[in-house]
Structures are given as C-alpha cells and as structure tokens.
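Every protein is a chain of amino acids, and every chain bends into a shape of its own. The fold becomes a row of whole numbers, each drawn from a learned catalogue of backbone shapes. The protein below has been through that process, and both of its lines are reproduced in full.
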Amino acid sequence: MTDKFKRPELPNVGIVAEMEDADRALLGNYGEFLPAQPGQIIIEAGEEQEYLYFVISGLLHVTILVDGRNKLVSRVESGETLGEVNVFDPGKASATVTAQEFTQIWKANREDIDQFVKAYPEAGASLLTGIVSVMCRRIRNMNEKLADSESMEILGKFW
C-alpha cells in the first residue's frame, strides 16, 4: 500500500473530450482539484461566482429556492460542468450546488483558462470549443423549454 495521494485526472468527456491526453493533464495544472463531501455546498445562490467546475466523479444537485423550499433544477454527474457563463462573465450565482455524495471536482477561473490558452493555443482552442458547445446546447434546451411553455400557455387559452 502506498501513502501517496494520486491526483485525479480530467476524464476524456464533456468540454475536454476532444483534447489529447497530455493536454488534459496539462490543463489540470491550471486549476485546482477539490474533494467535496456529501452535503457540502459548492456554489451558493446569490454569492459571487467566477469559476468553471468540472465534475470528475460523484454527483451534485443544483437547486433554487421557490416559495421557501429548495427545488431540484438539475443533477450534475461525472464529465459535466457548471459555471461556463460565470467564468467569462462573473456575477451572482443563480442557484445553489450541493454534493450529494463524495465528489471530485476540478475548478478554474478566467485567469487559469487564459493562461492555459496562451501557453497551449491549440489545446486551448479545443477547450474553448468544448465550453462553447456546452453553452450552445444549454441555450438550445432553454429555448425549447420556453417554446413549449409558451405553446402550453396559448393552448390553455383555447381550452
């Protein structure tokens, strides 16, 4: 048995799926790896938020407060990210994110990402493409939900 702690690695999924193994390993040096225990709050609604979070393993719940009760908005699992908007446009978090089980996270701010992109432009371009792809998918999903809710509202007027 060894006493050495093995540093987590960024898995070949999500925003880093198109990156080479060596580039993902280098990217890990530009942020920090964090363990989160069950019940630990990662992001607090209403607090300043400027980080991109990549879930290496575990499960996070994203909740918002509605009528005094926490409402589950999303489950975030291995390979998924949070904070894509806030890393480029810092602001207050719109939701609270809590670990549901032991979770390993990689966290980086804008300066970390900028330094990586400058040091490794090709790998950085791949990372930025991955981030933009996730953001586009989320915008598309929100647009579909909005369109569905508006359709239901219109239908409700006729029934």
In short: Strands lie at 32-36, 41-43, 48-49, 51-57, 59-66, 69-77, 81-82, 91-92, 96-99, 103-109. The CA atoms of residues 116 and 124 lie 6 Å apart. Residues 14-158 form a domain with the Jelly Rolls fold (CATH 2.60.120.10). The mean pLDDT is 90.
